[in-house]
Specification:
The structure holds 3 protein chains of 3 kinds. Helix content of chain B is 69%, strand content 9%. By secondary structure, chain B is an alpha+beta fold. The longest helix of chain B has 40 residues, at 2-41. In chain C, strand 21 and strand 22 form a beta hairpin. The chains are: A mainly alpha, B alpha+beta, C alpha+beta. Chains in contact: A-B, A-C, B-C.
């Protein structure tokens, strides 16, 4: 009798171990993530006096900056994730060749990732002003004549396409390294024999890459892309640092705008909460669609 | 014989082209970094010249002549390639301040007086002299002028350390569970790193102000590190899970068979083996906590972090981009050092877990 | 030393997977018992339950009569050699071997004596200050064994300890393991999927399949008297040849017939099949029990498909319908591919199986 009780206790204890190990995380998330999230969700469905309303979302959707923000975000996400993926994959493949000095090369490519946002902000602000280092460099290179200047961040008629392109390039510059390390780890963990077999059976570099390396790398690619996708939709800081609020409106920039720039308005909190819910919905849906399309769920079902 | 030589030449040529390509690539990538570093060494006067000098000057050339108010001090302008008048004054102190602050050049009042004496004794209309630049002037000034810089730096270190402690202990436990056990909710845990990121961080920061205020943690390093850990824990779970997966379970089992409890087995075998990887994970967390600015702006008031101080210098310093640059570079330095060590552990950190 | 009893032990993973299904066996004092079976048969799970590394779903495990089912590994007085050795890479060989002794709070001088003793026994006396990364696979294997015998356990567990070694080393190591066992006199459970390893090293072999024990016996017993088709097929290389035959009873006696041969059974074999009433039967003949004879005495004539000379003997393969049959013949006379061969079965070694139940008949 005693023996069976101690046995079941030990068994329970053994089975409980993983749950005890993850308990702190669950509690932590509950306090520091779920609670504020619920607060924002409630905020988005109530008016200033705390009464339930859908008016906040009506205001968000009729905000003159909402559709441009959505549009700009979509463009930035589409181009930046594509460019970043290609750039990161290229660098990862290059470093994976393990040439002499590849360790140092790796470190150098990681530098943009290590720089704080304020440092990169300072870097681009000082670069992109009319008398900044980019124009200076172009002048020394002979591209710009004396007195000639390119007004990167504006000039007389701000051109959203040009500004969007700048934002995309700057974002890519900073983000490629963090995507690259994930892909590089994936590449390094691929069995070498599979690739070698690809070459032995007549593949050239491109076919081996397309038919063997990439498919085998798929789980890693999914990881890298989904992480990037989620944060790309939430881009705003570099835009505000470079251009201030409202010139290239994007979704999260709107949240910050209502939070930080015009916190005094009586609709500020409602607008920010409404935008937040819209953004998270878009992010979750995009992530879900990506995972479905890329087949991450299928893999689990068969496993 | 000939073919061998040919092959060698072709190999050498290929290598040269390859490394040239790499150099170009890196030069292109790091060009912006070069300029911000260069800017952080420029004198305030030169930082606003156009076109901007490509390299910081190591010395400053002066011309001293007589002027209406006393003496005219001119400096060599590297952009316009001529001496340009900057001061017309009788006061040595004013000269010293200008030379130090605007030109970032080392000089003492005695030295200025000596040069003035030399001008008067020479009987010439003007004399020339050269003084070495104090290259670290901007860095020095950033910490001296920016009242909060040093305490903010200490706070930032404190916050980063706390964030590492919180996320590594809490996330490390979960990562271990993830690597070693099968349990319900494992997939949910795996996706939690994504879920947490799906909600904009800035949006959470505002309700967090109230939550932290209630707990008396608003404007406190601990409060901020608790917030930073929300994002850091998810990644820590992934990374530590990947690290623990790389350590064969049988090593731990052997320790159990040979007389250790589960805890002893973990402490004596798994932990020492995981240590380098965990250190890498800690450095990764450090990067995030150290560099974070936005939440820090929202969640601090009188106790800003270093990143907030640099941010304010950047926005407030309309006349001092070189100071802001120095602050930014000073801030980037520890992050760069950690990245240097981190690069060896990329595989261990990211090899194990995927979505 | 000690005895080990496994009583009605079952291991389930989740709801569906049954890794060990009501396994019962007894290991005698100082016995070298081998758990043998194909991968996934539950042999390693059974061993790990004995070690305490895997929880027992149902049943009991007794060491020296003491129920250890719920004890953690460290309280069971066992030791183990792992498949991938599991020697700790951050400790020297000396530290690896002395780890358990230190945890037992032994005197330093006593630890030192034991470490050197087992190191000499396993021929790693020179390597004590090295770290595992500086050792070859065979040396790591020896360290794992030395570590296991240093604690003088009641039961010594080995989980496929030789499978990571190259073929030659594997053979020499198994001889050494046997010698070490003989001198250490430890009750040993050894898991392997390699039947020739099991045959050469075991006092007794337990053959498992699908989580169940299908046969227990000495190497000779499981070789000569395989309890069913699976055992007869699994033990021995080349494996037993099987023929589906029809029993034909006529006035002159009992015949086993198929489209290739007609074998008239000797009276003693006829007696073995007395109680068997079905018409179909599976005949099992070991490769060495199919012999080359003169044409006049043969029951089967065919042509050699492949001849594999092995030095001491030759393996001759031929085709019989869809099947490839292999026989082992003396090295001389040397056969050639395509040569006509005349064959007979040695009747004293024939095995009979019920094709429906797959069980052996007439033992």
């Amino acid at each position: 009798m005693v023996a069976t009780r101690s046995k079941s206790l030990r068994k329970m204890w053994g089975q409980a171990t993983p749950y005890l190990l993850i308990l702190p995380v669950v509690i932590y998330y509950a306090i520091f993530w779920v609670r504020p999230v619920i607060a924002v969700i409630i905020g988005s469905f109530t008016d200033a006096s705390g009464v339930f309303t859908l008016q906040n979302f009506v205001m968000v959707f009729s905000d003159e900056n909402f559709w441009p923000a959505l549009n700009n975000t979509a463009i930035i996400v589409l181009f930046s994730v594509t460019i970043e993926f290609i750039g990161a994959l290229f660098l990862a493949l290059l470093i994976n060749r393990k040439f002499f000095g590849s360790g140092i090369f790796l470190f150098l490519t990681l530098i943009p990732m290590a720089l704080p946002a304020v440092a990169t902000g300072a870097m681009w602000i000082t670069g992109l002003t009319a008398h900044g280092w980019i124009n200076s460099l172009l002048y020394y290179l002979g591209v710009l004549a004396e007195g000639e200047k390119i007004y990167w961040l504006g000039g007389i008629e701000p051109n959203p396409t040009k500004l969007l392109a700048l934002v995309i390039i700057i974002d890519a510059w900073q983000v490629i390294p963090s995507m690259m390390i994930i892909l590089l780890a994936g590449l390094q963990n691929l069995p070498k024999a599979a690739k070698e077999a690809g070459y032995v059976f007549g593949g050239n570099f491109m076919t081996v890459l397309r038919k063997i390396t990439m498919p085998m790398l798929r789980p890693t690619i999914q990881t890298a892309v989904i992480l990037r996708l989620i944060s790309a939709i939430q881009i705003w800081l570099i835009i505000v640092l470079l251009l201030g609020f409202g010139r290239i409106p994007v979704l999260v920039e709107r949240i910050v705008y209502y939070h930080e720039e015009v916190p005094g308005l009586n609709i500020s909190y409602q607008m920010a909460a409404g935008y937040t819910i819209v953004v998270s919905t878009i992010v979750s849906l995009t992530a879900l669609v990506y995972l479905r399309v890329s087949g991450a769920f299928k893999k689990e079902e068969t496993a | 014989m000939n073919r061998k030589v040919n092959k060698k030449i072709i190999k050498a040529a290929k290598d040269t082209v390859f490394y040239l390509f790499l150099t170009t690539l890196i030069a292109g990538m790091l060009l912006p970094v070069y300029f911000i570093v260069s800017l952080s060494f420029l004198s305030t006067r030169e930082a606003y010249r156009y076109p901007l000098p490509l390299v910081p000057a190591l010395k400053t050339d002066f011309e001293l002549t007589y002027g209406e108010n006393g003496y005219i001090l001119s400096v060599w302008d590297r952009t316009d390639k001529e001496y340009q008048t900057v001061l017309d004054t009788n006061e040595v102190e004013k000269m010293e301040v200008y030379i130090k602050a605007r030109l970032g050049t080392k000089i003492t009042q005695e030295e200025i007086r000596a040069e003035i004496a030399r001008l008067e004794n020479s009987g010439q209309e003007s004399i020339f002299f050269t003084k070495p630049r104090s290259l670290l002037y901007n860095y020095d000034t950033f910490f001296k002028v920016t009242r909060d810089a040093v305490p903010a730096l200490i706070r930032s270190i404190e916050i980063a350390a706390l964030t590492i402690l919180i996320s590594l202990s809490i996330g490390g436990l979960a990562g271990y569970a993830f690597a070693r056990y099968i349990f319900k909710g494992k997939d949910a845990l795996r996706f939690s790193v994504l879920f947490v990121r799906m909600f904009p961080g800035v949006a959470i920061a505002l309700p967090m102000v109230f939550i932290l205020a209630k707990a008396n943690l608003y404007d406190e390093p601990l409060g901020l590190s608790l917030i930073y850990s929300v994002g850091a824990i998810g990644l820590t779970i992934w990374i530590t899970a990947s690290i623990f997966m790389g350590i064969p379970k049988s090593l731990e089992e052997a320790a159990q068979v040979f007389g250790g409890s589960k805890l002893q087995a973990f402490m004596r075998v798994t932990l020492p083996l995981a240590l380098p990887g965990l250190a890498a994970s800690a450095m990764y967390t450090f990067l995030g906590a150290w560099n974070e600015t936005v939440a820090a702006i929202i969640l601090t008031q009188f106790k800003p972090t270093f990143s907030v101080v640099v941010y304010q210098t950047l926005l407030g310093a309309q006349g001092n981009v070189n100071l802001a640059a120095a602050g930014g570079i000073a801030m980037a330095l520890p992050a760069l050092i950690f990245t240097f060590f981190l690069r060896r552990y990329i595989n261990q950190m990211w090899g194990g877990v995927t979505v | 030393m000690a005895t080990l009893e496994i009583i009605n032990v079952t291991k389930r993973f989740g709801r569906k997977v049954i890794a060990a299904d009501n396994v019962s066996l007894e290991v005698h004092d100082k016995e070298f018992l081998v758990l043998l079976g194909p991968s996934g048969c539950g042999k390693t799970t059974t061993l790990r339950m004995v070690a305490g590394l895997e929880e027992v779903t149902d049943g009991n495990i007794l060491i020296d009569g003491v129920d250890v089912t719920d004890l953690p590994p460290r309280k069971r007085n066992i030791s183990m050699v792992f498949q991938n050795y599991a020697i700790w890479p951050h400790m020297t060989v000396y530290e690896n071997i002395s780890y358990a002794l230190k945890l037992k709070r032994m005197e330093k001088s006593e630890i030192d004596r034991i470490v050197h003793e087992v190191a000499d026994m396993t021929k790693i006396g020179e390597l004590l200050e090295r770290i595992p990364a500086q050792l070859s696979g065979g040396q790591q294997q020896r360290v794992a064994v030395a570590r296991a015998i240093a604690v003088s356990p009641k039961v010594f567990l080995m989980d496929e300890p030789l499978s990571n070694l190259d073929a030659k080393l594997r053979v020499s190591m198994r001889t050494e393991l046997k010698a070490i066992h003989d001198s250490a006199k430890a009750t040993t459970v050894f898991v392997t999927h390699d039947q020739s390893e099991a045959m050469s090293i075991a006092d007794r072999i337990v053959i498992m399949r699908h989580g169940k024990i299908t046969q227990t016996g000495t190497p000779e017993e499981v070789y000569d008297k395989g309890a069913n088709l699976f055992v007869a097929d699994f033990i021995g290389t080349p494996p037993t040849n099987f023929f589906d035959v029809e029993l034909q009873r006529n006035g002159k006696g009992l015949h086993l017939v198929n489209s290739y041969f007609d074998l008239r059974l000797l009276p003693e074999n006829e007696a073995r099949l007395k109680g068997y009433n079905k018409d179909q039967l599976t005949l099992g003949v070991r490769p060495e029990n199919i012999i080359l004879v003169k044409k006049s005495k043969s029951i089967l004539d065919t042509t050699a498909l492949v001849v594999e000379p092995q030095g001491s003997h030759q393996v001759i393969a031929f085709r019989l319908g869809e099947k490839i049959i292999k026989i082992v013949a003396p090295a001389l006379p040397k056969m050639e591919m395509g040569e006509t061969i005349h064959l007979d079965f040695q009747q004293e070694s024939l095995r009979f199986f019920d094709p429906e139940s797959t069980l052996a008949i007439g033992d």
